[in-house]
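Hi R.,

Here are the chain sequences for the assembly we discussed:
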Amino acid sequence: MNLNLKAKEANTYDAIVIGSGISGGWAAKELCENGLKTLVLERGRMVEHIKDYPTAHKHPWELKHRGAIPQKVKEENPVVSRCYAFNEATEHFFVKDKEHPYEQKKPFDWIRGYQVGGKSLLWARWTQRWSDLDFEANAKEGIAIDWPIRYKDIAPWYSHVERFAGISGNRDRLSQIPDGEFLKPMKMNCLEKHVKQSLRELYDDRHLVISRTANITERHNNRGPCQYRSLCERGCPFGGYFSSNSATLPAAEATGNFTIRPFSVAQSIIYDRSLGKATGVRVMDTNTKEVFEFYAKIIFVNAATLNSTLLLLNSTSNRFPNGLGNDSSELGHNLMDHNYNCKVEGEFEGMEDQYYSGRRPTGTYLPRFRNFGEDKQPHFLRGYAYGCGGFRPAGVKNVTETSIGLELKKDQTQLGPWTFGLGGMGECLPYHDNKVTLSKEQTDDWGMPLLEIDAEYKENEKVMTQDMIDTAMEMLDRMKFKNIVDKKEMRNIGLNIHEMGTARMGHDPKTSVLNKHNQVWGAENVFVTDGACMTSSACQNPSLTYMALTARAADYAISELKKMNL
Amino acid sequence: MTFSFMKRKTFIKQVGYGTGAAVLLPSIGLVQSCSYDPQIRRTLSEADIPLLDEIGETIIPATADAPGAKATKIGEYMLLMYKDCMEEEDQGILVSGINTLDSKAAMDYSESFVTINPTNRKVLLETVQEEAIAYHLEHEGEEKVPPHYFDILKGLTLNGYFTSEIGMTEARAYLPLPGQYVECMPYSKSDKVWAL
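And here is the predicted structure of the full complex:
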């Protein structure tokens, strides 16, 4: 009895955070800095900033296959092999499909990073804010359910996370991507400046800006600045970009309140019906397969969208037979991604005497103009942005393709024409029948049911795709670009790695899983603040919003704890 | 059968064109090449590295500015990529393509591609490149056209060369640590392009 009590005491913290990726890192930092003894559970291995970036300084010729992934690895892991960032220098930060299987009812590419820091090591670092155009859309159009928050609720928390993370950007005064707390912006090259000017002359609603980016242009919080190598996904030895490893986890650790336990898969959240709240987390050690219980007053679920929902679905009790907080039966539903199936390029005639130097780890951004302001689209809802870039590669296409020998060598060591590319980034609507469920037959090596994913792009996404392509080509044409090509980008849903929804926020426990503070309805000391909480997807890259929602929820949790409400 | 017939035809053609001393030199080559009998490969191996080196060097030759593909051990790279990083279908196309190229060299010059002179190597590969271009024109608009073996050889050469230390630091200019982004800077045709 005494021994058990002691063991329980040793396993008791003020807070538990499940997951150490981009949102879990924020939960850990905010909770630790407010004096809570916090345990972070991470299913993967430890990755220490700088020390565990083994490829960070490697030149291309120092990689055995010069960066290419061997065919055998591709065949065993077709899903992750389709990810743009998966290569010989980064593969150790990605989950191999073969090792962590899941079921696809329809093709869905699920890209994962199981290690301390999660996918924050690998993210694309684009950080546009959302606006009320996004938070109000569901309510205005009668789609799904209303967001329980508005821009004013999250704006101070955007500022809070931007100040710490370090976001470079320009104050562009565009209401669809509100300005934030920016470090000086990265620069547009000659062609991008030209395109910005041309679009301004040809259209009223097309504003090309430098993407707001979590790469720091000046020294910030003892990190960076960015060295313009553009090798971010290997882990940055200069701390040039924001990740859990470089920023939030060290800050949490510095408080003395932080404990991290790698190799720990959360199996379920323990719910006490008499208390009406969760008391802890059941965990399997991935090395020993031993099962432990850890206890805390509050629990933050930040396992990354689909694993957070998997954990809730697997946390069954008499009170919640279909998963924690699932009175609405919406848990697992309304899965979204973005739609990037548009890639268009054109060549520019002119500025032949201009070039650039350095590898800028971001691009330019053409914010949403569809179904916004004066624009009204008859055939689809919402809109899209474009990720854009001007670049100048070696070689002139028809010489490159038809020559060998001296001519080819000369061609490949001299510049060709400037090229401008636009990649569409479309919003996806939340559909009830885009969903995940748990396999009734199969479990993984850690006792968890396999996740079954059943999702697809539907009519609104398909119609929007065509408009993204047509509009990109039309803009390039009007700007007098030549050799305009549709690169026929064709990605499965999931591959944009913006999977979100499945435990949405809402006003009402009958139609949502989380309330306006990201608390699980019926288990209010459990907070879900990663992508699972999203009620719609907007078209901006989502991580900044996850971070802001996490910091906001942590602040609320702390104040409620102080009031003895949790 | 067809093969020995073609060789004979080449022989007649060369003798017919030659006069005096000029006949003597090619005929020496010819005598030697009679022992050159292209073997049909089922796979690529270390033994093919000299051949792959010369193919690479023909595509990206040495110049005053920078060594060519052979100096970057392009043959070794191509073999590694063939073994480790190529789809089975492409492996098959490449192997049968190398066999074809070998036969062409034997037909046209009665020698191995490795021993014919650089000018003739280039002529031969240009012919193959034209074939590849014609092949793609013929299949234009079709979905998933398999590559021509020349596309694979050229792609491997360009990729291998420009990711090698020589290709990146001598043929192009490499900044491992740029430290800054200069958004506009003047460029003239004599300037090198960045390696990445």
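Strands of chain B lie at 182-186. DSSP finds eight helices and one strand in chain B.

Let me know if anything looks off.

Best,
T.
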